[in-house]
Amino acid sequence: LEEYINNLCLINNLSYQDCFLIGFSQGAMIACELGKFLKKKFAGCVLLSGRFLSLQNLNINFFINTPLLIAHGDKDDVVDPKYFEEACQYAESNGFTVEKHLLAGEGHTISSKTLELVQFFIKKNV
User: Fold this and answer.
1) What separation in angstroms does the CA of 11 have from each of 1, 17, 30, 31, 45?
2) CA-to-CA distance for 50 and 92, rounded, in angstroms?
3) Looking at residue 56, what is its pLDDT?
4) Nearest 5 degrees, angle CA 95-CA 7-CA 87?
5) Residues 90-111: pLDDT tens digits?
6) CB atoms within 10 A of CB 84
7) How far apart are CA 47 and CA 33, in angstroms?
């Protein structure tokens, strides 16, 4: 993934700070772990119905300078909504700037409301 992102950045004359890591469910977990592994600041990271897999302290990791959007349905029966609270607490305790949304009545899905939140987050952080 690192090589792929590096190649896309090179081809398009972009830096990591121009890129967003976005994932849904397991993809959100991968996006977070990739960001922590790369230790770079991105334009943003979006976690949709996901979680942080490892909860290690990130005090010397430039990824914490990446704005986060965490959105999760309160009726999610695939990835328990308790992980929303855990992710928010972890992100805030590590110094991330976090925009968080627990979406009432939503399950394990990407709704039009979720897409609006993502669109606004991207526009705000571009």
Assistant:
1) 15, 15, 23, 21, 21
2) 16
3) 80
4) 25
5) 999 999 999 999 999 999 999 9
6) 24
7) 11
